[in-house]
Amino acid sequence: MDSGKLRRYELKAEIFKALAHPMRIAMLDKLRERPWCVCELAAEVGIEKSVASKHLSQLKAVGLIDDEKHGTLVEYRLVAPCVLELASCAETTILGYRRKRLDLAYPNSAASPSC
Questions:
Q1: pTM
Q2: Do 60 and 14 touch, CB atoms closer than 8 A?
Q3: Predicted confidence (pLDDT) per residue in 8-44, tens digit
């Protein structure tokens, strides 16, 4: 495999790695609504400011969000809303597949074993 193609795969993997934490997905979902400063966003999702800053740094490093300074205030904004659409699409598809598998495994029940 050529190095350019490999690097593109590595970048994609980094994006998915940044998405691999529920709190980062929650923060992206909030950032879809509007720009937020770290203090407001941390309070909104119920975590400490320092923890929120670390999550935001990871999301910014891969290019999913950006920040803008207004004096001493830094606001974060979502620049790739398509990742939330991708996550929603994958969730819907996977849940449908799981339901289908359960229905096939337990055809005469309400998709659950009779234990």
A1: 0.81
A2: no
A3: 999 999 999 999 999 999 999 999 999 999 999 999 9
CA distance 46 to 81: 22
Domains and CATH numbers, the chain: 3-80 (1.10.10.10)
CA-CA distance, 89 to 33, in Å (whole number)?
Answer: 19
E runs forming strands in the chain: 36-37, 65-70, 73-78
The amino acid at 77:
R
Please state, in angstroms and rounded to a whole number, the distance separating the CA atoms of residues 58 and 16.
Answer: 11
Chain segment 94-108, per-residue pLDDT in tens: 988 888 888 877 776
**C-alpha span between 104 and 98 (Å, rounded):** 10
